[in-house]
Design goal:
Strand content: 5-15%
Helix content: 40-55%
Structural class: alpha+beta
Largest sheet: 5 strands, antiparallel
Distance between the termini: 99 Å
Strand order of the largest sheet: 7-8-9-10-11
């Protein structure tokens, strides 16, 4: 396959991609955007009548913003979003733990994990599919750094860094060092003056037979030598440098992709199995140059795309607070060539480039009609999440899709209620021309007088009165309709009144658990996207990170080397799904700890078990490092072994054997008394132990009976609640069926009446036509007869 054929193939795939140049999907996402923002446009446009209500209900936004915190808590409320599990026992266990710590560190600290997760989920709740891109960013980051007052050693350490390139340097003597030298010379000069005033030490005559020795230097000479040494030393220099740091080697990057920038084939069911997907994004020439593209490729590069620049979804999103959203101000309106922006499409297409008859996945980056790079890859760097996944389709349903009909109905009802209230407050009046002072009538003031010339010249028009109670009842029905559509109820928000708030805690928990089932299902769908994202992260760091890195975990520095992992772990999502709220988990753990304390004396709970439960309780309380509050028994120093009682007894016997007879007799007597006391103490301790064991066994049996009784009672309450709900649902279904039958009967009667009316009208029309034909025939006969008579 040639490059021209590859260009043609990618052109065709881009044109056929869903949502690439507008279409139904793009219009649905644009509609969801202005529904979320509560703008009076499109389906929510008010009537073109002055003075009518323009209020817009914000049901879609309220539902999304109420549901998002609960979803965020499930994924970002803990220390780890995911955990990696080893495939084999042994060293892989420690490596899997390190991979878990390191990748969660990259997600939270290096890629603003909270912001990424929130945007990802909000896109899925609003725009059908939330798209995220995980890739190894090879762009060179250049930053300017300035250092002042550096010593030679500090300067050498900075310049030894391969990423640093000095651009400016200034050298000057150290004023503090010069001042210290001057003070030292002054101090030594004073000492020299004092030494000069002292007499020289007496010299000893040389010993006979030995050569004369050189006399030692005097104190004045020593001080003078120190002064000369200080003056001969070169001054200490300081350095001010300005340097450019270029970070190379790449980094793991996670980026949210706007829905309108993501391209995928129309028949695709998932990103992994799609024959084509891509990312169409605007980049500057400077960014492309930092990615490593050569100058000959970037020369005269043209990638203007008016359809992408004025995409309806992007314009709709920006026009809420930008009055110039329809203008392409970030295009080529710059005199700086490095900041000129072009549209780059990163295509992931399956094609047979090497001609072996088997298609492979290739990354083709193109700008305009020029291919920037073309390489084979094993996976597309995208992961998606969706609220309601439709079978055999990529695009799912969002919460906005489920709630837009409710918002439209509530908007119409609110406008009707407001218009009706306005008409009741400021109604319409009639006035007889010439009989009423119109200035008085048009000036509305308390106690005002309207001058008229005759009685009945002015009055209120007879207009319909609003049914406020009926409107509120219809609003309540619409709210329930929306709750059934989205699955997010007032019970889920915690602000419901009525039976839930006045019932028992068990009943409230049952209702809340059932209301949260739809949210839990959405969270499970999101969990698949998080698993795929961390799989991509693990794959990239194993492939591209070529050196160790040091990170801080739980107060200590740990070396991480992804080259040892080699993408050999399973990914297990670690979110709180189906396990109750955080308060419920804390209550469960507290109950477990209390039970452990009861059975610890009989050996049914070890110190390690108690520590693990306490550590989990601390984590649920928001404390990531449980070692601040509890000590791990496995990390405690071992106790020294106790001495052997037999050895002590033998030593005592040996000592006793060395004593005289009188002491031996006393010892034997004391030994007999001690033996009796020991036996008595053993018997008493044995009885207490048996009594304690019996009490503990009774407590355990009682606890088991209470737990079984509580479980039985809860099951009975659940069954009763389910029976009541089933009966209520059956009653509602029966009422709906009867209502439907009545409506169908009325529609049948109406249809029969329409049919009879149509038959009657048809008969009348036929009679009219026949009568007209008879008249025409008679007229023609008369005219023919008249012509005959005239001819005769």
């Amino acid at each position: 396959m040639t490059e021209d054929q590859l260009l043609a193939l990618t052109d065709l795939e881009i044109r056929n991609a869903v949502g690439a140049y507008g279409g139904r999907l793009s219009e649905q996402r644009r509609k969801a955007e202005y529904y979320y923002l509560g703008e009076a446009k499109g389906d929510l446009s008010p009537p073109e009548v002055e003075g009518r209500s323009t209020v817009v209900d914000t049901y879609v936004r309220n539902t999304i913003e109420a549901m998002l915190p609960q979803l965020m808590e499930k994924f970002t409320g803990g220390e780890h979003v995911v955990e990696f599990e080893p495939q084999l026992p042994g060293p892989d266990e420690d490596r899997a733990k390190n991979a878990t710590e390191y990748l969660n560190y990259l997600f939270w600290k290096k890629n603003r994990g909270h912001t990424v997760a929130e945007t990802w989920m909000r896109d899925a709740l609003l725009q059908k599919n939330g798209i995220i891109k995980v890739w190894w960013d090879t762009r060179t980051e250049e930053t300017k750094e300035e250092y002042k007052g550096l010593s030679q050693v500090e300067l050498a350490q900075i310049l030894d860094d391969e990423e640093v390139e000095p651009t400016e340097q200034k050298t000057y003597p150290d004023e503090d060092d010069a001042k210290q030298r001057q003070e030292a010379i002054q101090h030594l000069t004073q000492q020299l003056q004092q030494a000069a005033m002292q007499p020289p030490p007496p010299q000893q005559p040389p010993q006979p037979g030995q050569p004369p020795q050189q006399p030692p230097p005097s104190p004045a000479q020593q001080i003078q030598a120190q002064i000369q040494h200080i003056q001969s030393q070169p001054p200490v220099m300081l350095y001010d440098i300005t340097c450019k740091r270029s970070k190379k080697g790449g980094k793991l990057s996670i980026e949210n992709v706007p829905p309108e920038e993501f391209l995928i084939g129309r028949k695709a069911k998932s990103i992994a199995t799609a024959t084509f997907c891509g990312h169409k994004v605007r980049r500057s020439i400077s960014e492309l140059r930092s990615m490593g593209y050569p100058e000959d490729v970037l020369t005269n590069l043209s990638g203007d795309d008016g359809a992408a620049a004025f995409n309806g979804e992007a314009v709709e999103r920006a026009s809420y607070d930008d009055e110039m959203a329809y203008l392409d101000l970030e295009g080529n309106n710059t005199s700086d060539e490095s900041q000129r922006q072009v549209w780059v499409t990163e295509c992931y297409v399956r094609c047979d480039w090497d001609g072996d008859g088997i298609s492979e996945l290739r990354k083709v980056t193109r700008c305009g009609n020029k291919i920037l790079d073309n390489e084979e890859v094993d996976v597309a760097p995208f992961a998606d999440i969706v609220c309601v996944r439709q079978p055999h389709k990529f695009a799912g349903l969002s919460i906005a899709d489920l709630g837009m009909q409710t918002q439209k109905l509530k908007t119409g009802l609110l406008r009707s209620m407001q218009d009706n209230q306005n008409l009741q407050t400021n109604g319409r009046y009639f006035a007889v021309d010439g009989q009423v002072n119109l200035d008085d009538l048009l000036t509305s003031r308390p106690g005002g007088v309207v001058r008229i010339k005759s009685q009945g010249a002015v009055g209120a028009l007879d207009q319909a009165r609003g049914d406020l109670a009926g409107a509120m009842s219809l609003l309540e029905y619409t709210e329930q309709f929306g709750e059934a559509a989205t699955g997010w109820t007032r019970n889920s928000q915690g602000n419901a009144a009525g039976p839930l708030m006045s019932g028992t805690a068990t009943g409230a928990n049952i209702v809340a658990a059932k209301d949260d089932m739809r949210v839990d299902l959405i969270a499970r769908n999101f969990a698949e996207g998080f698993v795929e994202m961390f799989r991509l992260m693990l794959k990239l760091v194993c492939q591209h990170q070529d050196k160790k890195t040091e990170i801080r975990l739980n107060g200590s520095w740990v070396d991480m080397d992804p080259r040892e992992w080699r993408n050999q772990f399973d990914v297990n999502i670690n979110v709180g799904l189906g396990a109750g709220t955080k308060d419920q988990k804390m209550q469960f753990l507290q109950a477990i700890i209390q039970q452990q304390e009861k059975v610890h004396a009989v050996g049914a709970a070890s110190p390690a078990n108690i520590y693990n439960a306490s550590a989990e309780l601390a984590k649920l309380a928001g404390q990531k490092n449980a070692d601040k509050f509890f000590s791990d028994p496995a990390k405690q120093p071992k106790q020294p072994p106790k001495p052997d009682p037999e050895a002590i007894k033998a030593q005592g016997a040996q000592q006793l054997a060395q004593t005289n007879g009188q002491v031996q007799m006393q010892i034997e007597q004391g030994k007999g008394q001690v033996t009796m006391q020991v036996e008595s103490a053993k018997l008493q301790a044995q009885m207490q132990l048996e009594q304690h064991k019996a009490e503990l066994q009774a407590q355990v049996d009682q606890s088991e009976q209470q737990a079984q009784q509580a479980q039985t009672t809860m099951q009975q309450q659940i069954d009763a609640q389910l029976q009541r709900e089933k009966a209520q649902q059956d009653l509602q279904l029966e009422q709906q069926r009867m209502q439907h039958e009545r409506e169908m009967k009325a529609m049948e009667l109406q249809a029969e009446g329409i049919e009879r009316e149509r038959d009657r009208a048809t008969k009348v029309l036929i009679a009219q036509i026949m009568a007209k034909q008879s008249g025409d025939n008679a007229m023609l006969a008369a005219e023919s007869k008249a012509d005959t008579v005239a001819a005769e």
